Amino acid sequence: MSLKFVRNPFAAALLGAAVVGLPATIFAMGHEATPVVPVAAPVPQASGVVGRAALPDFSAMVRAYGPAVVNITTKGTVKTSNRSGGQLRGFPGFGDDDDNSPFGQFFRQFPQQQIPDSAVRGEGSGFILGADGVILTNAHVVADAKEVTVKLTDKREFTAKVIGQDTKSDIAVLKIDAHDLPTVKVGDPAQLQVGEWVVAIGSPFGFENSVTQGIVSAKGRTLPDGSYVPFLQTDVAINPGNSGGPLFNLDGEVVGINSQIYTRSGGFQGVSFSIPIDVAMNVGKQLQATGKVSRGKLGVTIQAVTQDLAKSFGLDKPYGALVSNVEKDSPAQRAGIEAGDVILKLDGQTIEDNAQLPAQVAAKSPGDKIKLTVWRDGREKELSAKLDEMTDKQLASADDADDNVAASGKLGLAVRPLTSDEQKQVEVKGGLLVQNVAGAAADSGIRPGDIVLSANGKSIDSVKQLRDITAKADRHIALLIQRGDARIFVPVDLG
Questions:
Q1: How far is CA 305 from CA 94, 317, 479, in A?
Q2: Distance from the Cα of residue 418 to its chain's centroid
Q3: Is 365 an annotated catalytic residue?
Q4: Rounded CA separation 245/137 (Å)
Q5: Which of 140, 227, 278, 450 is labelled catalytic?
């Protein structure tokens, strides 16, 4: 059974919604709740070995902030879409059928569900930020909705306006015509600790103001859904209808917005994901001001640094983001970033995992200047870049005969230089076309028709170059491979 990331529920969006100006102060961090009362009692701190301790009582928290959590229902038409049900979306480019190869693992195509157009009702959750009726929820809750209704815990119902929505972060801002409403207060997700208690309030399956609890399982998770969000992972029970609801810490502060689950069955299985509230508040301010969200763009394609790649590049441990491609006329190219660089730090902050980099860059504004520390030729190099604004070919068959073919020994490749016409066709300089593959290269997932662009960070334009670099390599060699329009570094264990 396939794994799925599920965004709940099947809802859908307001057409032609007007952007309404609202006071920016409602999006300020640390917004005070009304009323403020004592919340959950913290778990007693244990010294030494953790023993039995009284569990926290969440009843005061629910009494204080439950009234600020709303039920959202939508009416609309669901259009045929590969996002229905939150299916993992396939990666473009490689389409490799071999699940054991790095291409199969990294660019595997996931099944996509197609659903015919139909009139539907959707249901989700949200929470009140401003006493004048400003509400935060998930964008997918109101996506394509023609009518959005907000129901309060006192049973009052209001037709809501969609102030703005951003699909990349999955955040939407709503407004209802009401006053003196109960509100939440906003916390700081950076202060959350893995293992800390958290509480969700929402409307799973339409059961309004349901409360579930759990702990923070991990922070800074990046999911393969095209978003730029460093998700909070929890084991709080989240089900269809919980989407858009708040995640509270023990101080009664909202630290996240419940958004997705990871599941084999389609239901909750102990892994849920929430959008950090600071990310949501930043998006909300921009939606309020302009109706859209601007994000920084660096212009690089990156991949993870594995243990083998770290050895190939001379790094003492696997960390950072390996640049496999640099976009033409991008901030990265203007800054001097090259394919084969490993980005180790952004503005002095270490990139422990490559997934951190897109979220950190996207959090910047167009025009911002950033400092990058990259690893190149066995040493660190400092570069500066000014960010732009983010916006969203096949060779002849490898079976063609050619006398200018040479095998690169222990690497297991039979290659030939690209012709000038082929270089123009795929827009590269130099490069070797793989015609046959065996041994170590085959084990690493390289196949006929691939183009070898570089080896251990050195551009390749002749068979001799590849032979010489392979001969000098110790046990590992990192090849930059192009297949179609996609590029990826492949570590090859030479044995």
A1: 19, 9, 13
A2: 36
A3: no
A4: 7
A5: 140
Among 186, 203, 227, which residue's Cα sits nearest to residue 71? Answer: 203
If 0-12 CB within 10 Å is exposed, 13-18 middle and 19+ buried, where does residue 464 land? exposed
User: For residue 219, what is the enclosing H or E element?
Assistant: strand 210-221
What pLDDT score does 227 carry?
66
CA 194, 68, 139: angle at the middle one, nearest 5? 70
Cα 29 to its chain centre, rounded Å, is 23
Backbone conformation region of residue 8, classed left if phi is above 0, alpha if psi is from -120 to 50, else beta: beta
Low-confidence ranges of the chain (pLDDT < 50): 1-2, 9-38, 43-52, 80-113, 115, 393-408
Burial (CB < 10 A; 0-12, 13-18, 19+), residue 15, is exposed
Q: Quick one: pLDDT at residue 325?
A: 86
- Integer angstrom CA distances of residue 443 from 199, 304, 308, 354, 476: 47, 19, 14, 24, 13
121 touches 148 (CB < 8 A): no
Distances (CA, A) of 132 to 1, 164, 182, 184, 254: 46, 17, 9, 13, 19
Pick the catalytic residue: 96, 144, 166, 170? 170
* The pLDDT value given to residue 430: 86
Backbone angles phi, psi at 200, to 5 degrees: -115, 140
Number of other residues whose CB lies within 10 A of the CB of residue 462 = 13
| Residue 470, token pair as written in the block | 């392979």
Please tell me the pTM assigned to this model.
Answer: 0.63
Compute the distance between CA of residue 164 and CA of residue 13 in angstroms, rounded to an integer: 10
Annotated catalytic residue, options 101, 125, 243, 444: 243
Pairing of strands 253-263, 246-248: antiparallel
Single-letter code of the amino acid located at 156: R
Domains of the chain, CATH where assigned? 4-19+26-40+57-79+117-290 (2.40.10.120), 296-389 (2.30.42.10), 406-493 (2.30.42.10)
Q: Is 392 a catalytic residue?
A: no
- pLDDT single digits (tens) 285-340: 999 888 888 899 999 988 889 898 999 899 999 999 999 888 889 999 999 999 99
In angstroms, the CA 164 to CA 17 distance is 8
Q: Model confidence over 238-267: pLDDT tens digits?
A: 998 999 999 999 999 999 999 988 877 777
For residue 95, which phi and psi values (nearest 5 degrees)?
A: 60, 35
Mark whether 31 is an active-site residue: no
